[in-house]
Design a protein that fits this description.
Blueprint (H helix, E strand, L loop, with lengths): L2 H14 L6 H13 L5 H18 L1 H13 L10 H22 L1 H5 L5 H21 L11 H12 L8 H11 L4 H22 L1 H4 L7 H28 L3 H19 L7
Length: about 270
């Protein structure tokens, strides 16, 4: 892997991880279009450690508070009736679907799941679903009001992002809007929900990323640091953006990119695998 490839893919990861446009799809497309090969699912998973580290730093106070509340809840009954205690448990529960499905379908995720025909289709289909959710969602429920049912459904929505093109944040934002949550609430929750699963996936696939002709240790560190810095800025921007804007811009972007990808595949300019 060249240094240019490492720098570009680290930048792409940081820019796209938190937007509902699928970072894994963008890494897959960028690798194919500009470098003529697939950087691989392991590279994606490891660079996500950088963007999730950005989440931990950005929400350090909130995360520390939730962990402390969750821990005190084991010995203090009054804590167990608080909204923060419930949210902490919902983050844990919501992580289970992606953990189980990720292990069951690991081989398919790293092979057929990265076919560009599938990526183009998921970009378009789930982009249209995001637009529909924006249009019909009531956007009345704040984060503290979500229920255990909501937490489980959002966990399965996150798990759909195992397929490149769906988007981790896109899946949870779509599901959250359908459930009636406000945009700021579901975006914040999607950040928290991703932390356990992304760190687990990145550490699990760390040995794979250096196999064959993959990046060196130094290249991987640089790509992850770039993803961290750019990802931190993207978090701050997205949280401000969703407070006063709809998500339609991401819908049109996804559909447009998906159609361009289909055209490239249909004309033979791009290889699907």
């Amino acid at each position: 892997m060249t240094w240019l490839e490492v720098l570009v893919l680290g930048l792409v990861q940081g820019l796209t991880e938190f937007l509902p446009i699928s970072s894994s799809a963008h890494l897959r497309i960028t690798s194919e279009v500009f470098f003529g090969r697939d950087a691989g699912a392991a590279f994606t998973a490891v660079t996500q450690l950088g963007t999730e580290a950005a989440v931990v730093v950005y929400f350090a106070k909130d995360i520390g508070h939730l962990i402390a509340v969750w821990w005190r809840g084991f010995s203090t009954p009054m804590v167990r009736i608080t909204d923060d205690y419930k949210i902490a448990w919902l983050v844990i529960i919501g992580t289970i679907p992606i953990a189980v499905l990720g292990l069951l379908f690991e081989d398919q995720i790293q092979t057929v799941g990265r076919n560009l025909w599938l990526v183009a289709t998921t970009l378009i289909v789930f982009g249209l679903l995001l637009g529909l959710a924006e249009r019909i969602g009531r956007q009345q429920i704040e984060l503290r009001k979500i229920t255990p049912r909501d937490g489980i459904l959002l966990g399965f929505a996150q798990a759909m992002a195992l397929v490149p093109g769906v988007s981790r944040s896109g899946g949870t934002i779509t599901a959250g809007l359908f459930l009636g949550m406000t945009r700021p609430a579901i975006v914040r929750y999607s950040f928290l929900l991703a932390i356990p699963s992304v760190f687990a996936a990145g550490l699990f696939q760390l040995p794979d990323v250096f196999a064959n002709d993959g990046p060196s240790v130094l290249q991987m560190i640089v790509a992850t640091v770039i993803a961290f810095v750019v990802g931190y800025a993207t978090i701050a921007w997205l949280l401000r953006y969703v407070e006063g804007h709809s998500v339609y811009v991401f819908v049109w972007y996804r559909v447009g990119l998906g159609l361009l990808l289909l055209a490239g595949l249909a004309t033979g300019r791009l290889a699907a695998t």
